[in-house]
Amino acid sequence: MEYLQFLIIVLFSPLLNGVIKKLKANMQGRVGPGVLQPYYDLLRLFKKDMVVSNTTSWIFKAAPYVVFTATTATAMIVPVVSVPSAYGPMGDVIALIYLFALARFFMALAGLDAGSAFGGEGSSREMTVAILVEPMMMLALFTAAITVGSTDIAHIAAASGRTFSPSHVLALSAFIVAIVAETGRVPVDNPDTHLELTMIHEGMVLEYSGRYLALMEWAHAMKQMVLFTVAVDIFFPIGLVRFPGGTAVLASSVLYAVKMLGLAVLMATVESTRAKMRFFQLPSLLGGAFVLAFLALVTNIMMGK
Amino acid sequence: MDVGSILSIGILCFLSGALASQLPLSKVRNFSYLFPLAGALAFLVASGPLILGPAYAGKAIPVSSTFSFAFSGDALSGFFVVLISLVVVAVSLYSIGYTRGLKNPGYLGLFFNVLVLSMYGVVLSANIFTFLVSWETMALASYFLVVFDRNEETARAGLFTVVITHLGTAFIMALFLVLARYTGSMDFVSMRAAAGALSPGVKSLVFILAIIGFGTKAGIIPLHTWIPRAYPVAPSNITPLMSGVMIKTAVYGFLRVALDVLGPGPEWWGIAIIAVGAVSAVLGILYAIMENDLKVFLAYSSVENVGIMLLGIGASLLFQSSGRTTLSAFALAAALYHALNHALFKGLLFMGAGSVVSATRTRNMEKLGGLLKVMPWTGFLFLVGSLAITALPPLNGFVSEWLTYQSLLLGFTSPSVAAKIAAPLGGAVLALTGAIVAAGFVKTFGTTFLGRARSEHATAAQESSPWMVLGMAFPAVLCVVLGIFPEIPLSLISPVVYSITGADVEFHRQGLLLTPGAAVSLSTLAISAAMAMSFVAVFLFIRLYGGRRKTVSADSWDCGLPGLTPRMQYTATAFTKPLRIIYKRIYLPSRDIKVRYSQKPFFVKAIQYGGDITPFFDRFLYEPATRAIRLITGRVKTLQSGNLQLYLGYILITLIALLIFGT
After folding, report:
1. What does the pLDDT read at residue A305?
2. Fewer CB within 10 Å, N or C, chain A?
């Protein structure tokens, strides 16, 4: 169990995506597809033939595998239902963010590989958003990390306990903005559109089809669930079972499902109530989040906690 | 054999290399680079005993009653000898292929060997005289190499290099004179022994002089302006040496003076170095990403990497000021690790850029594209270098940046509030830098090697010679090895750090389990294994579930209007446009649009667009300074009328003045 908890993220991440889609549809007064729809999509894509642009090089073919395997590695680092995670010692929260960066690097290269303007546009915007998000996300995570004296996620989860300081609230707000941006959700990006002028993530994967597209989409869903899990591990670690778990693992799993559902509701609400921002309004949103993260740090120092 | 004789063999190899490159047979001249290769290997062998100690002290050769030539080496010197040697090995292999068909290879071979020897001289100097002579030889050799291609661009770059680096040398001389005056000695060992008794004011003066003097050579902002001018115009087998190694000699000099000789200082030293490092890192890479010239981009990126090293050194100084030597050792190890890594991947990238320039005759990315198909090896190796410099796991750049993050975060345990805020902010700056580096290398690799060829420069390109590929493959392999097995470089760095801080860096065998205060670990080997396993799993899943499927090759999506041309690709300029808008306060971009009409204002014939960013430091620091200097020299020039009687008059006045005031 201990060794297999990362499979929860690998296997259930499409479901989480399906739940968010369903919630969004309900909030917008639509019936929406069933929550299992992402699985049907993935399985169908794995069985399809592919069309590959003749401009592309081997980067285009390697990128889906790099993206998928790097994201799987992040799922192994993060503790899901019990601490410490069995594979936790292989990396910390910094390694996790840099593995995402590895995935993003290859995705952006793949976007440029087909030689069309859409891919380049997606790559350029994705890298720009990353520049705005990464320092803010790091600062928010550092605020949690320095209280504990470690960037190891299991350590932060085990030590941050049940107290909730103002500094944590500020850092959490910044981190949620970071999640929205990193997972390509409204108001930063729109996951449901293929409108050329607004897309970021979809622009980069525009040329993909078949199994490559399936890998990319699956990895994207996994990344979202990993980020959610990092958020609950660091900011709401209540109920996380210490190894060895026994029957408590079941309770922990239920609690984890509830937390994920809570974040899904949050994301669906944000997406349903906000409009997508113009690309060049993003610096003010993400810069504001950076200020929050910085305030979290200062509060942390001033209050000694 | 003792260290001295191995070093002599090495020196002999370089001298033979310089001579062999003068021979009139072109085949021999190309392969004369086997001599520096052998020399570098000899120095590599000698570095082992240097690092593991005891310190080596060569015999002094007196030049006058006060000055003498003397070479010596301790662990710190040994580490930099390793760093220089690895790059020289790679560059020598590369040069065998690169110099084929080059005109004037004798000139290049001579100064190549002189440059390498002078760099070894700098890190192995026993006293300030030897140091300054080696330092100057290095500066002059690099000048002659910068002006290798005789044209106006290289002449200007060469002049710029000479002026700025000598400005730096002036500060270094001043710092050595102050040290010699107050410690009463000129060799580093006795200086260190006497430095403890220096007053804090003198120490801080020396420290500031060291930042400016060595910072000029290392290219910290705002003293960096010569770097993006000089690197790109030097021959392609020299730039890797200049960027990979020469700036490390400045880092060496700074470490020697600030950490070794001066010893622990006040807290503000550490914070100042963190601040200088943060500014250099962010502005360096912000300027880099706007460059569409392959080599200028890499040159600016060197400025950024020096900034990252300074973040580690600053954290080390910070810990030293409060007497926490274990943490100080840890931070210094991070900085040294990054210095070694940067030498490898920047050497690799500059060689890769050199291959591209040799194959396409242009440095402009906007004219390239699709090179991965015609230059598969160069492209692949350039990608390895890009991944390493972007600090992506599991390559070596990631490990050293991870260590830098950890040492900055440990700065939070400092007693003072300033350090508590500065340290995590340094971490956030590192994250910002990392993200911009990623964008920069996606742009550079993407527009150069991916997509379609944008001009005939790129369509006619061919893979470079096997020697050049071999020269690049060597550092590329090291980038992977030093990333996946960090215990190898750390076991090399540990004695070095011990010799300076007096504390060991403790690392667990499996991966990195660092002990001081932080329970955190990293294992790039495990990460690679996890990725490999998940690859096997998903590959099998696809094969078993999806089966074999057909792949159709077709044109890229063209919105149903066939006829995509290479000009419709995203350009390098377009890629960075969002950043020009977001950071407009820093870039101060300008645009210049010229419209020509055939019938104003309705029928437009042609629109010409030009855009540029303001080189802030050139415009607001160097140009006013140059104007001021010209103004003063213009005034002074009136004294020099060329009239003999006037000069005699000057002598007379001086004599009278001396007679009056001199007694």
Report:
1. 47
2. C
Q: What is the pLDDT of residue A303?
A: 77
For residues B165-176, average pLDDT? 93
Give the one of B531, B546, B566 whose C-beta lies nearest to A115's C-beta.
B566
Residue type, position A162, single letter:
R
User: Residue B551 and residue A49: Cβ atoms within 8 Å?
Assistant: yes
What number of CA atoms fall less than 13 Å from residue B241's CA on the CB side? 32
What are the residue ranges of helices labelled H in B390-513?
A: 396-410, 417-449, 456-459, 466-484, 487-501
Partners of B309 in the beta sheet?
none
Chain center to CA of A276? 19
Contact yes or no for A164/A254 (Cβ under 8 A): no
Q: Quick one: tokens of A187? A: 């108001």
* Average pLDDT estimate for A181-186: 90
Query: Which of B443, B526, B555 lies at the smallest CB-CB distance from A53?
Result: B555
Q: How far apart are CA A100 and CA A93, in angstroms?
A: 11
The verdict on B520 touching A (C-beta cutoff 8 Å) is yes
Task: Tell me the residues of chain A between 173 and 202 that have a Cβ less than 8 Å away from chain B.
Answer: 196
Query: What residues are paired with B492 via a beta bridge?
Result: none
pLDDT tens string B515-559: 445 577 888 888 999 999 999 999 999 999 988 888 999 988 888
In the predicted model, what is the mean pLDDT of residues A204-231? Answer: 95
Q: Is B371 exposed, middle or buried (0-12, 13-18, 19+ CB in 10 A)?
A: buried
Confidence bin at A160 (pLDDT 50/70/90)? low
Q: CA-to-CA distance for B631 and B286, rounded, in angstroms?
A: 33
The 3-state secondary structure of B384-398 reads HHHHHHCCCCCCHHH
pLDDT digits (tens, 9 = 90+) for A90-136: 888 999 999 999 999 999 999 999 988 889 999 999 999 999 999 99
- The dihedral through the CA atoms of A201, A205, A210, A211 has a sign that is negative
Return the residue of A nearest to B405 by Cα: A94
Percent of chain B at pLDDT above 90?
60
Contact A144, B481 (CB under 8 A): no
Residue B585's contacts (CB-CB under 8 Å, 6 or more residues apart) are: none
Residue of A nearest to B440 (CA): A127
Question: Could you give the CA distance from residue B480 to residue B44 in angstroms, rounded to a whole number?
Answer: 20
